[in-house]
Fold this protein.
Amino acid sequence: MRSALFSAENLEKESQQPGMRLQNSKMLKIELNGEAMARVGSMVAYQGQVQFQALGSGGIGKFIKQRLTGEGVPLMKVSGRGDVFLADFAKEVHIIDLEPGDALSINGSSVLAFDSTLKYDIKMVGGAGMASSAGLFNCVFTGHGRIAITTKGHPVVLNVDAPTYVDPQAAVCWSANLQTGYHRAEQLGLGTLLGRTTGEAFTMSFAGQGFVVVQPSEEPPTAGSGSQQSSGGMLGGLLQ
């Protein structure tokens, strides 16, 4: 049997080291020898002796916070020995290595999987107040290990060395040490364009030293949620 489908780029990638790696740009492979944490429903295939255990929000404290904020990450513990393949609606997958002292603020809906050595908490985005219905809360990851995140399309990584402004629905993650704020678009001259509204009601600002990852897609917020509640937006709909 012959087909371009069986070309080397589509064959399973093997490695001598356990852990996370990209099978391709839209699929994560975990060569499991122990345990890892993954987003519920993200498994597309696995081989070997692997067990899956739903963990909800990852603890009673986070469960309570989720009920108050509407945010969180629905987790499952993946344990055993074998190969596990994860994906999320063909979104682009990226792996980030966190070192001791690092802190990453990320939209919960962009979390695909992470090493069990990492910790996370749900925190309010600084400067948000009640100004906007989008992106009031985020997950902050710390510790030593790998985390796999997803973006809709190829992102741009902005180095924050000058005042930086991003649509809240397009911001995927950023250095947790950055100072954040929310501004009405009219304050930045974006409220109207040639007499028409631009559709950008709020803009998120970043200052300090660090980076912001921006995806080329905006997720519509759900009205009246107090935070963004969408299938793939800023921490939206992750704990049901």
The chain has one helix and 18 strands.
